[in-house]
């Protein structure tokens, strides 16, 4: 309780100074130190085990989403499986992701497929119960933290590394426990001049989905090694 009282003025100070939480500091000022303490407190209270694991794994968090085909899809649609892996250094690191998906039609498809974080980690009605886009800041698509954009398959696969993502594994807006949906169509990125475009990018049917959960680093280490070095270095949003 005393700690909370002590930290509260610090929070107000952060706001009035307008320092965005995602700025990576070169050295830690007292303000950033307070931000870290708030993050620490939040994590240790709400996710004590996750917090312990973080400290044990060199302050880097990992998460995984094991992609399964939408069970309500017509049989002639692609049966997409695979996983999306996440890595993020605590507390100031930006989220990195590896997308490894299989089951698209063979050949190179020049039309993209949209991938997003959706609101609910509920697949009780397969991908239909995942809800709409996860939208904690009440903004229009494609400004949602989990709007990962369009992905292009080659030889039936999507293999892609992305870094500097705005979604996060930490704090009140963690994507852990939310879902990922792989869509049939291209994301119009809000340029479709209709209401749906600003909600979901008119990305069409849900081909496959999964729930994001914490993980150890093993899968990241394995999959990351499969991404060609020159594709890894490129920083993509
Ligand atoms: C922990 O981080 C340090 C410095 O970033 C690195 O040299 C070391 O290999 C890491 N250890 C593990 C177990 O990942
Ligand atoms: C990372 O993303 C932010 C916006 O979220 C952008 O301002 C910044 O330039 C990006 N950094 C790199 C290295 O691409
Ligand atoms: C290419 O992708 C689009 C969706 O973005 C899909 O509708 C179309 O069937 C795909 N074409 C092939 C040949 O796979
Ligand atoms: Cu979506
Ligand atoms: Zn969106």
Automatic annotation (TrEMBL):
The keyword Repeat does not apply. It is found in: Golgi apparatus, trans-Golgi network; Secreted, Extracellular space. The keyword Oxidoreductase applies. Its EC number is 1.15.1.1. It catalyses: 2 superoxide + 2 H(+) = H2O2 + O2. Binds 1 zinc ion per subunit. InterPro entries: SOD-like_Cu/Zn_dom_sf, SOD_Cu/Zn_/chaperone, SOD_Cu/Zn_BS, SOD_Cu_Zn_dom. It holds the Pfam family Sod_Cu. Keywords: Antioxidant, Copper, Disulfide bond, Glycoprotein, Golgi apparatus, Metal-binding, Oxidoreductase, Secreted, Signal, Zinc. It is an enzyme of class 1 (oxidoreductase). Residues 1-18 form the signal peptide. GO terms for molecular function: copper ion binding; superoxide dismutase activity. This is Superoxide dismutase [Cu-Zn]. It comes from Pogona vitticeps. The lineage of its organism: Eukaryota, Metazoa, Chordata, Craniata, Vertebrata. The gene is SOD3.
